[in-house]
Write a structure and sequence with these properties.
Oligomer: single chain
Number of helices: 11
Shape: globular
Strand content: under 5%
Strand order of the largest sheet: 1-2
Structural class: mainly alpha
Number of strands: 2
Length: about 260
């Protein structure tokens, strides 16, 4: 685009792209395909969290690793989590996605088991520190609770912390999956205790680059400060559902190479 768009033109353009990508045809090639295989709330939450955790790199490789996770868990993530013991660690042997390996997965399973048995599940843990306008402190507090068990220090890198200026792209994406409900068939809308207005855009190289091209974001780094700026901008377009524009920004970047 050679000339700057007016606020209305930009909003209309983004809304058009949201409609283009926020529909069931988006699912098949996206990591959200994995939780869409399930109907039970806990199954969707658990496999969604694990798949979101490994969602960096090529989408095909993410889906391949996600399929392996589903297979390891016997196509029943919640049952696998609930019954897991150290004796079951052998079933994780050889799992690796980028720098996330079987030992990281072992801890994640133990921690998820602890969260469901002792903290009323993932929704409760995230919701107890969310406000009507932000989930970022909730993510920070979630990380503390998630790593409350004995663990290798290296495993902590797989859960981002907004308080350390991280954009926390993967957790924000996961929260979008769980919280948004717009009857379009992509996001699940399972968690009613968190408001969509509190969500933050999953800021990555695609959404960041497009936001800058459109003049929505000026900061060059894809960090926590940039996320706050992007959130402020997107909430001006729609304060109640700002992260729907993730579909537009991601689609323009990753699919259209805008």
């Amino acid at each position: 685009m050679n000339t700057p768009l007016t606020f209305k033109e930009l909003k209309d353009f983004l809304e058009e792209k949201v409609l283009l990508y926020n529909n069931p045809t988006f699912i098949e090639a996206d990591p959200i395909r994995l939780p869409h295989q399930f109907t039970k709330k806990e199954d969707i939450e658990i496999i969604g969290f694990l798949v979101a955790t490994i969602s960096w790199g090529n989408r095909k490789s993410i889906l391949k690793s996600g399929d392996k996770l589903v297979s390891i868990m016997g196509n029943s993530p919640s049952d696998f989590i609930n019954s897991y013991t150290n004796d079951h660690q052998k079933f994780l042997s050889g799992f690796v996605h980028r720098t996330f390996n079987e030992f990281d997965l072992h801890y994640f399973i133990l921690s998820l088991q602890n969260i469901y048995k002792n903290h009323k599940g993932l929704e409760t843990v995230f919701a107890e520190n969310s406000t009507s306008t932000s989930t970022q402190f909730a993510i920070h507090e979630f990380k503390k609770k998630f790593f409350a068990l004995p663990h290798e220090q290296r495993t902590q890198k797989h859960v981002s912390d907004p308080n350390k200026n991280s954009a926390a792209k993967r957790i924000n994406m996961y929260l979008r999956w769980m919280v948004r409900e717009d009857s379009k068939g992509v996001d699940f809308g399972l968690w009613k205790s968190i408001q969509p207005s509190a969500l933050s855009c999953p800021l990555d190289v695609h959404s960041g680059n497009i936001a800058r091209k459109l003049g929505v974001l000026e900061r060059k780094q894809n960090d926590g400060k940039a996320l706050n700026l992007l959130d402020d901008a997107l909430r001006k377009f729609d304060a109640n559902d700002p992260v729907k524009y993730d579909f537009a920004l991601f689609g323009l970047g990753a699919i259209e190479h805008f």
